[in-house]
Amino acid sequence: MQSYKIPLVPGPTSVPRKYREVYLTDYGSTDLEGDFFALLAENISLLRQTLKTKNDVVIGSGEAMMMLWGAMKSVIRPGDRVLAISNGLFGRGFAEMAEAVGAQSECLEAEDGNFVSVEELEKKLKEFRPDVVTAVHCETPSGLLNPIADIAPAVADSGALFIVDFVASAAGADVRVDEWGIDIGLLGSQKCLSLLPDICAMTVSERGWQRAHETAYNGYDAILPWEKALEIKATPYTHNWHANAALNLALKCLLEEGLENSFKRHAEAAAYCRRRALDMGLKLYAAEESLASPTVTAIMVPDGWRWEDFDAALREEGLAVGGSYGALAGKVFRIGHMGSQADINLVKQGMDIIEKVIKERA
Amino acid sequence: MQSYKIPLVPGPTSVPRKYREVYLTDYGSTDLEGDFFALLAENISLLRQTLKTKNDVVIGSGEAMMMLWGAMKSVIRPGDRVLAISNGLFGRGFAEMAEAVGAQSECLEAEDGNFVSVEELEKKLKEFRPDVVTAVHCETPSGLLNPIADIAPAVADSGALFIVDFVASAAGADVRVDEWGIDIGLLGSQKCLSLLPDICAMTVSERGWQRAHETAYNGYDAILPWEKALEIKATPYTHNWHANAALNLALKCLLEEGLENSFKRHAEAAAYCRRRALDMGLKLYAAEESLASPTVTAIMVPDGWRWEDFDAALREEGLAVGGSYGALAGKVFRIGHMGSQADINLVKQGMDIIEKVIKERA
Questions:
Q1: B12, A24: Cβ pair inside 8 Å?
Q2: Which of A180, B30, B95, B159 satisfies CB 3.0 to 4.6 Å to A152 for a cystine?
Q3: Is 0.95 topped by the overall pTM?
Q4: What is the ipTM score, two decimals?
C-alpha cells in the first residue's frame, strides 16, 4: 500500500494510532449488552457538549451521508418546499436529495467563492416560503466555512425547519446547534474527529422529531426508531461497538484539549496555510479570507499546471492533498488541515513541498 | 466492559484478534487511492468464489440491512407484487419492507419450525404472480436453514426476481448464487465471517441491474451508482478501507481453510450442539433436524425457566447466548456456532454450562 509521509487530504484524515488501537478490544454483541448502551449514552452526552446542544443526538453506524439521506426522507414530504443555501457541491446536493424525496427545491446559490448575504436570503425566504432550509457549514469541496450564525435569525423567523451539515467543521470550528436553531445537524467521523468513516451522528430538535412523526416515513433508514433507542435498549440494526468506543476516546481527547483550543489549533494551521499559499503567489478560492475554512484550504491550481500533473508531482515528494469535484474539478486543490492534520508542523512540511514543486517547474 | 469466556451469541460473532489487528494499519483516503480500488476489486473476486457466482458484487460500508433497504428501493416499484417466503422474523421483514416501498406484498408463511413445501409455493406463485420473490437462507431468529435449492426452480419458472438474504449462512453453509438463480443476494460481515458489523456485500445479476435501470431509483442509498464504481474508481460515499482490508483477510482465511471444510466445521459444531441439547432433554425449535441451521441452533427455553432468569444464570457462568425476537421472544434461546464460534470445543464448554445450570435448578 502506497502511504504518504505528509497526509493533507481533506478527509478521511489520518487516524491516530490511539484510535486505531481501540479496534483491538474484543467486544461482545451490541444488540444484547447493557455496557454498549451505557457507552452510547455517554457518547451522546459528549456530543451534546461538543455541539453545544440539549437536543437529542442519534449515533448511526456507517458513513454520515447515508444517515443524512434517511433524515431527509424522515422530515421532508413530497410537495414540501426546500430551499438549499449553496456555494458548492454539497449545498447543491441537498437540493438534489430534496427533489429525489419529491420536494420542490430551489438553490440559493452564491457567486464563486462567496456566501449569500442575509438580505438575499431574507428576500428568497419571503418569495419561496420554504418548509425546510438546508445549509452546509463547511463546504469542503470549496474550502468555505459559511457563517451559519449570520443567517440563523432569518431562517428562524421564516419558521422553516433548519437542516445543517457540519460534517467537516464540528470539533475544528465552533458549532452552536441550539443558538443557531438547527433542527437536524449532521456530524461525520472521518473529518475533524480523525476517526474511521464508520460512525456518524445527527442532532434532532423537538421540532425535528415532531416533523418526523408527522411525516411517518417508515423506511429502514428512518430516524424515528432512534427516538427511543436508548430507552428501550434497541437500535434499528446491529451497531458498531468498536466505532463507538473509538468515538468515545476521540470526543474525550477533544474535550480534554478543550473546544476553544481545538478551534484555535485549526485556525492557526489554516492561517499559516493561507499565508504560505499567498506568499508563493497562489490564489485562494475563497473570495474573502473570512470565508476560508479553518479545516480545509481551497487553492487555485497554479498557472501552467494540469491538476493531474501537479498532484503527481506532490505525491512523488510524499505529499497527498485533495482535488475538487464538479465545477471545481481540475481548477482547485485542497489542503485538509483538520483533526489530526491541524498541525502547523505538518502543514509547513506540505507547503514546503508545494513551494519546491512550483519553483522547480518555474 | 463485561466480557464472556464463552461467546455463543448468534452474531455479531467473536472477532478473532488477527482481524482486529488489521485496524492498526494507517490507510490513506479511499476516495483518492488506486490501492483502495485494487483491494475492492480483489474482495469482489474473493466474494464471487465464496458465493459461487459470476454476478457483480457490490461491497457497501455499514451494516447489511441498510444496503438491503437500498436494494429493495432500487428494484421494487410501487404496485409491484412481492411474495415473501417466510418462517420467521426476517422473512416477514421482507414483506414489510416491500409494503414500505409501496409494493403489494404477501407472506407465504410456514408452520412453526417448518419451511413451505414446493407445492405450496408453486400454487402461490400461480395465484399471486409476483414480480419479486424474497427468501431468507438462514432465518437466524428461528435457527432454520431454508432449502433455497429446492424452491429455486419454481421461482425461476415464475420469472420473478429472486432476492435472498444469506447474511447468516454464507461461508458457514453452501450458497450457490448462480445455480439458485439469485438476482439480489445479501451478505453481512458479523456472522460467519466473524468481522465487525461495518461492511456488507450484495450480489447483483444482470437482470437485477436491468430492473434497477427500469426502476431508476435515485436515492442516496440506490444501488445503481455502484454498477460502474470500480470502473470509474468512485464510490457513492467514502468507503471504509480498514473494513475492506479485514474482509480481505477473512475471505482469504476462509478460502484457505476451504469452503467445504468450513461447511463441515459448521455442520459438526451444529450436530454436536443439537445432540447435547436433545441428550439433556431440551426441545429444538426446528420441526425437523434437516432444517436446523449449521450456523445457529434455536432451542426452546427449558420448562420451568423464564428466559431472563435462564439467561442471567448462564451469564453468571460466563456463557453468552442469544434470546429471540417477535413471537419467539422468551420462548426460544439460540446458540450461535458460526464463524469463529463454529468450534466444537467452545460449543462443548457452552453446553456443559447449560447442562449444569439446568441440573442445579432441577
A1: no
A2: A180
A3: yes
A4: 0.96
